[in-house]
Amino acid sequence: MTGWVKIVGLGPGADELVTPQVSDALAAASDVIGYTPYVARVAPRAGLTLHPSDNRVELDRARHALTLAAQGHRVAVVSSGDPGVFAMASALFEALEQGPTHWRDLHIEVLPGITAMLAAAARAGAPLGHDFCAINLSDNLKPWALIEKRLRLAVEGDFAMAFYNPRSKSRPEGFARALDLLQQACGDARPVIFARAVSTPEEDIRVVPLPDAQPEMADMRTVVVVGASNTRVIDGGQRPIVYTPRSVLS
Amino acid sequence: MTGWVKIVGLGPGADELVTPQVSDALAAASDVIGYTPYVARVAPRAGLTLHPSDNRVELDRARHALTLAAQGHRVAVVSSGDPGVFAMASALFEALEQGPTHWRDLHIEVLPGITAMLAAAARAGAPLGHDFCAINLSDNLKPWALIEKRLRLAVEGDFAMAFYNPRSKSRPEGFARALDLLQQACGDARPVIFARAVSTPEEDIRVVPLPDAQPEMADMRTVVVVGASNTRVIDGGQRPIVYTPRSVLS
To answer: Does B177 lie in the same domain as B149?
Structure first.
């Protein structure tokens, strides 16, 4: 039996947003490894071993996946959204690079998924319709000063911005600082989208002008999208539509 | 009969990367509108009218979709990748904002898809595993000076970068200027990924150090991903793996 590792993206939550490629990989797997709430999205079946684990043990999880694959297991490593965006793919390749060289002969694939910012943008309209940045606001793995620098440069470049992991329970003050910086640096009322648990029964989409944005509007299940200076809001209909035009006039 | 418009993402090419949500919308549609090569990806069937159109007529196409929906048609507007990333969603909302107010009562949804940079990143490893920017290199709809400014700021912020529409037949010189700017500004040998026609039979993935990157390596079917300064390449196995680590040391 030939083992493999497929690092798969489960999308933001709804089954209808999981690609057939990922569904097929889960159906063929012998083992599923990942953060407990993501593993819980995979239906148990005979012949499938589920290995849920806690947050912040990404490297252990990656080594576990590679070790099992080297023993002939067919391992699906599951991430929410897309595995390549602030998720398990980088951790797996870090473990691969640090690990025994025979791991490099394993069959390893990354199967993309609908990442949170794309699902959130779709529900709100098209706020990422022009140039944009994606920034992880967690300072677990990088200095806060670098986050601030990137925020300032993103504003200077007039990118739309998508923020992942805006606000953890353990470090809630970071997002308040980020919002404060953006309110000062942008100096306008561009729309901010707080998109929580998109495509799940708990979905909540809120659109507010930047000066009214409050840190408490986000938690770790929220992706936050901040418009560019020319991002527009269309009122009327069921709810406001936020979109960034395709063109920037010179 | 109640009309609707669903702006759907077909993903980068392979059927196995189309979400079930999008497949269901296409199965329920009475009309499909889009750029000819994307409409060609939808199987004809009784009861479905295909409306292929040329490139650069996005607003006409959007008005057509809204007009048909207002007459009760069930209209799928198709984009490659994700409709919210340099695709039809923004054009549709531009047309909506400029059009008759009764259009705002229509049922309009954006259904996300796997955008080219995520598919390309997955095939290469995890180059977008940390903060990144997505920039449309076409200067059809924005001044070239703004593209250069964003490139410089993205380098200064040490973002990984994904470039859409790098090189058109009509304006091939822009990408040469962009590469030249990056080679000067980065001053290192970080990896560049040229990912063409990902997930199709014509797929071609090429990884080169930035100093070796040539404009001719890209065309309009290519998405280009440039690593951050700490992006790594793992050799060995079938082909090089490119990934950006999750952490940045202070």
So the answer is: yes
Per-10-residue mean pLDDT of chain B, 250 residues long, equals 93 98 98 97 97 91 98 98 98 97 95 98 98 93 94 98 89 91 98 98 97 95 97 86 88
- Alpha-carbon distance of A34 to B71, in angstroms, equals 48
Look at residue A250 and tell me if it is in a domain: no
Q: Closest-CA residue in chain B for A96?
A: B234
Closest-CA distance, B238 to chain A, in angstroms, reads: 7
Q: Tell me, what amino acid is at B18?
A: V
Q: Which of A91, A114, A137 is the last residue of a domain?
A: A114
| Cα–Cα dist B186/A14, whole Å | 40
Of A93, A96, A118, the CB nearest to B112: A118
Q: Which domain holds residue A71?
A: 4-114
Please judge whether B89 and A237 are an interchain contact, meaning their C-beta atoms are less than 8 angstroms apart.
Answer: no
- pLDDT at residue B55 in the model: 81
pTM: 0.97
* pLDDT above 90 (res A227): yes
- For residue A194, being part of any structural domain is answered with yes
Over residues A173-182, the mean pLDDT reads 95
Domain boundary residue, one of B97, B114, B131: B114
**Rounded to an integer, what is the distance from CA A49 to the centroid of its chain?**
25
Residue type, A152: R
- In whole angstroms, what is the distance from residue B7 CA to residue A101 CA? 46
Nearest residue on chain A to B240, alpha-carbon basis: A104
What is the total count of domains within chain A? 2
